[in-house]
Amino acid sequence: MPSAVKPPQTLYDKVFQDHIVEEKQDGTILLYIDRHLVHEVTSPQAFEGLRNASRKVRRPDCTLATVDHNIPTASRKNLTTTEKFIDEADSRIQCVTLEDNVKAFDLTYFGLDDKRQGIVHIIGPEQGFTLPATTVVCGDSHTSTHGAFGALAFGIGTSEVEHVLATQTLITRRSKNMKVQVDGELAPGVGSKDIILYVIGQIGTAGGTGAVIEFCGSAIRGLSMEARMSICNMSIEGGARAGMVAPDQTTFEYLKNRPLAPKPDSAEWKKAVNYWSTLKSDEDANWDIEVYIDAKDIAPTVSWGTSPQDVIPITGVVPGPDDFQDPVKKEACKRALKYMGLTAGTPMQEIPLDKIFIGSCTNARIEDLRSAARIVEGKKIAKNLKRAMIVPGSGLVKRQAESEGLDQIFIDAGFEWREAGCSMCLGMNPDILSPGERCASTSNRNFEGRQGAGGRTHLMSPAMAAAAAIVGNLADVRKLAPPSASAAKGSPKVELDAHVEDISSDEDLDRIIDAPADAPPQTHGDAPPGATAGMPKFETLRGYAAPFDVGNIDTDAIIPKQFLKTIKRSGLGVALFHAWRYEAGTEKEDASFILNQDPYRNSKILVCTGPNFGCGSSREHAPWALLDFGIKCIIAPSYGDIFFNNTFKNGMLPLRITDQAVLEKIAAEAKAGKEIEVDLPNQTIRDADGNELAKFDVEEFRKHCLVNGLDDIGLTMGSVDKIELHEAKRTREWPWLDGSGYLARHGRGPVKVEAVPVKKTNRGEVVGEPLEW
Ligand SMILES: CC(C)[C@H](C(=O)O)[C@@H](O)C(=O)O
Ligand code: SF4
Hints:
Its cofactor is [4Fe-4S] cluster. By secondary structure, this protein is of the alpha/beta class.
């Protein structure tokens, strides 16, 4: 890992540096978090943790919550309460639990009855909650989206959500610096989604592991903010924790008049823009990894396989195992072709589709809908399609599109015009693919089962998905659209009126209330406020190790989305590797799966010889499921960053063994059905007879916490004086961060929007007051 940073610095170094609360000798850093977005899937256990330890939310004014993953996208005309609106019991419980939590902890919340509700990564920027030079986190891997503003934005697990709620900080370390420079003119029909799919195809899904990517170069500079967001959004698919773009005039223009940004004519705005303008990487900054791309090499791009790195120009043919040298990649290709129902050599444009999904935090902003509408206008979707959906990213995007008549263009063509939410991006709500169905999707993940068990996903841009809808096959947008301008450029500027209207209306003013100056901690238990929950200690672990030899085992595979609807941490062992463990659509064990065989049913360790274990989503349900099954230690060459962190937070030990020969030696013991022993104090792995198999490295602080069973929220509570010092500096130097967007308008101190406006109906129920629809 890189050591303490001295000038020259990168953009990432500068933002990181400005948020350090405390730095330890071993490089462990307590980092201040400016903005925390919260959604229903990854927060219930975090709030429960706060309650159990009688902790309060440290900065309600810097926390914004919404529901997005679980909610139906059907019309809300008859919406009365969330409870009545959501049919599916587990989804309903999760959403209602968030509503209870935002009330109990006094948080700003955009619920189903609020037109500002939407996908968490769409509403943050839309409201100006996301600002340059801030640290932004959310219990969601696509938090990287917000890096488009020059923010350091990354996904975290539920334990870290709890840590941020309680302390407004995170314990972390410096990342590597990676530069992806894209220069030159984009070809006609090529947009930001093609850029990022192409980049991931080049660097691979583990290419950015351990790094923060800065996207730069003339092609990136020429993009709108929305296009930059689509690029940063998928940094996580390239393995990076975060993606960033240096803020510039395009950024400042986008932020003007956003409800939570400083007011454009104020002294604060000038001060902010001056500061934001300094946030550029120094000319001679050091990069750990550099990638240079010529924009003209990028064609309209689609994915063919089950990993976001499996991409190809639309003019290409389906690749086959012979196209890959690396044996792991050959195997992955065979498996992907089988899952996708494709034959090597088939022209991509001859692949027929069943469904079209235009939506998700990657591509459901107004410019995305405009670019799709331009292709669709005056045409009809192909007859072979079973369903074509447009799911706007937020209520405000939906209203804006309707005011431009885009809804009618889509409806006339045969699309469904839905309400905002994550929808078929991951199918936690009723919008899913049936087994075997093939979908052209503007989302970001094409993992097995991602959009529904057995469903097949092809990733692409909104314009390409629109073209596919008209043709009924994967299609080349250039054949349907006048190839005058690239899809990412030349879009009309986003209209801001709809975005600011809410906050200036009387109704909204009424819904804004003062935060109590000295809010007493919410007490829900008997534990003292600084209490440390504690974890079981990890010292020596001996047991069977289950061998895996595939790479890129994603957290969707470790635990599929249908099991994320719990509000508890426990009982997830049955869901572990569900799609692999049971025969399709049944609860019958698949005897060929390793964990269904003896002695691996009783594994305590998992050995994976392929790279990038636990990539993808931030769901802490993945380590919870492993732990509940009995697996406490994983041995692999590399990991998805968020998964890696999440395991430690649960008292588990993920070990990086990068020497492939050593790894194979450990895997051989595992395959022979022999026990192995992991000795953390001595950092040694031994065979069943006590012979040393490997030594391993582990960060000092993490080892200390594991061996002593320490909960790091309790530890951070001990640094509260330093957190207060940082907050004082923050108020002095960056006053616009103290909830000042609303403060500037209403002059009443840090404020928040009341969670759900309540009123009594004539049936005597207390409900959220629906806004106009
Ligand atoms: C549910 C959430 C944890 C997850 C994520 O972290 O990405 C989801 O948004 C996804 O896209 O898989
Ligand atoms: S990737 Fe999909 S599921 Fe995850 S936050 Fe974005 S829209 Fe929602």
